[in-house]
Amino acid sequence: MSSVRVLVGTRKGAFILSADGARTDWRVDGPLFSGWEIYHVTGSPADPDRLWASQSTGWFGQQVQRSDDGGASWAPVGNEFAYAGAVGDHQWYDGTPRPWDFTRVWHFEPSPTDPDFVWAGVEDAALFSSADGGATWRESRGLRDCRGEDWMPGAGGLGLHTIVLDPADPQRMFVAISAAGVFRTDDGGASWRPVNRGLHSGHLPDQDAEIGHCVHRIAMHPSRPSTLFMQKHWDVMRTDDAGENWYEISGDLPTDFGFPVQVHAHEPETVYVVPITSDEFHVPPDGRLRVYRSRTGGTEWEPLTAGLPQRNCYVNVLRDAMAVDSLDSCGVYFGTTGGQVYASRDSGDTWEAVVRDLPAVLSVEVQTLP
């Protein structure tokens, strides 16, 4: 029987949640890296026992950790993230220039075929890769050459937080940066261009601006690599032409502000978001934690509430804190800033808290294991 491994990064360490395919009895291991912020922990599709974790604190900085045994043991690997060429400047919050300065890794995206190859999105926003299991890291400089001097941080920093690989074309990938927007490469990262047409952001004087949009998350179903879904800083969006044109699908959501967006493992038109009251109040509307699901690719949304708190709930769900497994009855998982990790065995119809009272959850990833 297949099993699942849920990898959880939090403000004070990482946790590994394990269950068989029934997903009813859970084992909780952790905390790993106790006391450290774990921005992201994920596994390699090419080798499920190869795990990556981004470990950081304000005191000791950043460290990349790697496990080769499914999280039973970990060891630090290379940690030098040097920007290629002249470092240059980007815009700061007040519009003044500020030198690029590496702070931490926000997101890892391992190769689907090579366990030693992994992409890393970092702050200040740049894309790095390692081809030797994390021993060395190299910047894909072409991305920052795409008007990087005009990029400005969002409220959480200038982070490259999402990397989406095209399973049909190994030369194509998408990245999302707060608050610069979405960028696409069609040549393996050598060159990039912004793909933000159709996005509108109230803080921009030019609503047709190529860059400057605060994209919170993008997601793709592997069977439809030209269709992507986006949760933006206001607006849920969709593209069917690989980012050339985006259109709004917020429809009847109670609010179109939020952070994560995810796609059902087997139904490319089934999409999940978690609406949050506003950019000022990062809490669920009316104190009711609801995941919203669209089975029509957007516009028409239904609230999923069974098993979720429907009164006095004031948590948030961050951009990297939702994931799906690939079992026949697709499992959906998300973590909250209140330290709960919720799981659904039935595509969101019902939910249960796998674990409560963890530190604030920053990321959730799921591995479906044979």
Walkthrough of the structure:
The protein is mostly beta strands and 370 residues long. Helices cover 0% and strands 41% of the residues. The chain has no helices and 30 strands. The protein has strands at 3-10, 13-20, 27-32, 37-43, 51-57, 61-67, 75-76, 89-91, 97-99, 104-110, 118-123, 126-130, 138-139, 159-165, 173-178, 181-185, 193-194, 215-220, 228-232, 236-239, 247-248, 258-263, 271-275, 291-294, 302-304, 322-324, 332-335, 341-344, 352-355, 361-369. The strands form eight sheets. The protein has a four-stranded antiparallel β-sheet with strand order 3-2-1-30, with no helix packed on it. Strands 4-5-6-7 form a four-stranded antiparallel β-sheet, with no helix packed on it. The protein has a four-stranded antiparallel β-sheet with strand order 10-11-12-13, with no helix packed on it. It is globular. The mean pLDDT is 97.
Question: Could you give a quick summary of the protein structure above?
Answer:
With 370 residues, this protein is mostly beta strands. The protein has no helices and 30 strands.
Secondary structure topology:
Blueprint: E1 3-10, E2 13-20, E3 27-32, E4 37-43, E5 51-57, E6 61-67, E7 75-76, E8 89-91, E9 97-99, E10 104-110, E11 118-123, E12 126-130, E13 138-139, E14 159-165, E15 173-178, E16 181-185, E17 193-194, E18 215-220, E19 228-232, E20 236-239, E21 247-248, E22 258-263, E23 271-275, E24 291-294, E25 302-304, E26 322-324, E27 332-335, E28 341-344, E29 352-355, E30 361-369
Antiparallel strand pairs: 1-2, 1-30, 2-3, 4-5, 5-6, 6-7, 8-9, 10-11, 11-12, 12-13, 14-15, 15-16, 16-17, 18-19, 19-20, 20-21, 22-23, 23-24, 24-25, 26-27, 27-28, 28-29
